Amino acid sequence: MRELILVRYGEIGLKGENRPHFEHRLAANLRRALEDLPDARVERGYGRLFVDPACRTDEALARLRRVFGVVGLHPSVETPLETEAILDAALRLVRGERRPARFKVEARRSNKAFPLDSIELNRKVGAHLLEHLDGLSVDLRHPEVRLRLEIRERHAYLYVRDVPGPGGLPVGVASPALLLLSGGIDSPVAGWYTMKRGVPLSAVHFQSPPFTSPRALQKVQDLCDVLAAWGGPVRLHTVPFTRIQTAIRKHVPPELGITVMRRMMFRIAERLAARDGLAALVTGESLGQVASQTLESLAAINDVVRLPVLRPLIGLDKSEIIDRAQAIGTYAISIRPYEDCCTLFVPAHPATHPDRLQAEAAEAALAVQALVGEAVAGTEVEERRAPGDARLPSR
Ligand code: ATP
Ligand code: MG
């Protein structure tokens, strides 16, 4: 008998011929999550992955529940394909649960060579539990304890616990993208949702020293570390943006300042993405939140790039974004009070319906390509990783 964590995954099971590719990626990501637990092992079985955590089950669970692609985790007992061993394991597992309890046994037999079918197994295991444990009763509709039993090719697996994972797809099955990361509440959440669909992330942050403090950069670095704990290392690009901000303030009509500033950010981000082979930009924009987030405004900003721009928060209310930020561990960092470069330059009356032509006319006063080139040349890059031992709050 061994104790294992059985890993259940959903959508990736549906991918037909790509399935082995998805499974390999998920297995690799599970291994990465456990890499500093020296004896932990990940094994593949048909339609399931198994993790042998080498005793550190709780520690392993805390990490595995942050691996995208995982739908559920079940700490399980593995037994030989023998009825006696299965009955013993069932007793041991249910004995550990609270009593008195209403319970149900749910057996699945994918190995048809096993002599008992699932109905016979349910009955036999149920009867064994009733005989040996006081205070139990069977309840098929609303059980307090569900004992699940899988009869597979070489072993049987039994479990009562169901620890939810984040769902989604394993990071690495999609091409990488570049997140515009401000240090606010929204953009890290947008990055999380993008990783959730299998996309590895790089990030870009625009900073305007001395108007922005080094602490604002520290915030962004810390946010990258949290994202890295979910989806692997994040390459953070830090762009010097002071010259551009100053030029905009000097030459662009105040009501168009934000639109032009955003267009400059997008141009620079697209150049950085091309340099690293990144397939899309990602922002934390959500419709209607602020003046720069009307559809007209998004269109005027989007006009300067050809890469797709993903806006995963488009359908979320602010309160939903905040809930998510809290659950994934970015909120406490995002609300640290250091200004980012945009809040400092917000005009009293930004245009809510800027159009492309207005923006272009305003930009005629700027040396756009030279400013973009200079910012790209001055960009610094560092790789951010999850701190090995600083564990984050779980979902
Ligand atoms: P956030 O909470 O992500 O800052 P927000 O609601 O404050 O979003 P804006 O300030 O209008 O909205 O920014 C919209 C988006 O533009 C951000 O979500 C982010 O993707 C990008 N962005 C804004 N400022 C910066 C910056 N200094 N560096 C990188 N990206 C930025
Ligand atoms: Mg912001």
From TrEMBL:
GO BP annotation list: thiamine biosynthetic process; thiamine diphosphate biosynthetic process; thiazole biosynthetic process; tRNA 4-thiouridine biosynthesis
Top-level EC class as recorded in UniProt: transferase
Positions annotated to bind ATP: L180, L181, H205, F206, R262, G284, Q293
Presence of the UniProt keyword Cytoplasm in the record: yes
GO CC annotations, alphabetized: cytosol
Cell compartment(s), UniProt: Cytoplasm
Any one GO MF annotation of this record: tRNA-uracil-4 sulfurtransferase activity
InterPro entries for this protein: Rossmann-like_a/b/a_fold, ThiI_AANH, ThiI_fer, ThiI_N, THUMP_dom, THUMP_ThiI, tRNA_STrfase, tRNA_sulfurtransferase_ThiI
Keywords from the UniProt entry: ATP-binding, Cytoplasm, Nucleotide-binding, RNA-binding, Thiamine biosynthesis, Transferase, tRNA-binding
Main location group: cytoplasm
Gene3D superfamilies in the record: 3.30.2130.30, HUPs (3.40.50.620)
Alphabetized Pfam families for the sequence: ThiI (PF02568), ThiI_fer (PF22025), THUMP (PF02926)
Catalytic activity annotation: [ThiS sulfur-carrier protein]-C-terminal Gly-Gly-AMP + S-sulfanyl-L-cysteinyl-[cysteine desulfurase] + AH2 = [ThiS sulfur-carrier protein]-C-terminal-Gly-aminoethanethioate + L-cysteinyl-[cysteine desulfurase] + A + AMP + 2 H(+); [ThiI sulfur-carrier protein]-S-sulfanyl-L-cysteine + a uridine in tRNA + 2 reduced [2Fe-2S]-[ferredoxin] + ATP + H(+) = [ThiI sulfur-carrier protein]-L-cysteine + a 4-thiouridine in tRNA + 2 oxidized [2Fe-2S]-[ferredoxin] + AMP + diphosphate
Boundaries of every THUMP domain copy: 58-162
Presence of the UniProt keyword Transferase in the record: yes
SMART domains tied to this protein: THUMP
NCBIfam families with a match to the protein in the record: tRNA uracil 4-sulfurtransferase ThiI (TIGR00342)
Protein family: Belongs to the ThiI family.
Function: Catalyzes the ATP-dependent transfer of a sulfur to tRNA to produce 4-thiouridine in position 8 of tRNAs, which functions as a near-UV photosensor. Also catalyzes the transfer of sulfur to the sulfur carrier protein ThiS, forming ThiS-thiocarboxylate. This is a step in the synthesis of thiazole, in the thiamine biosynthesis pathway. The sulfur is donated as persulfide by IscS.
HAMAP family attached to this UniProt entry: ThiI (MF_00021)
Protein's UniProt name: Probable tRNA sulfurtransferase
Species this chain originates from: Limnochorda pilosa
Gene: thiI
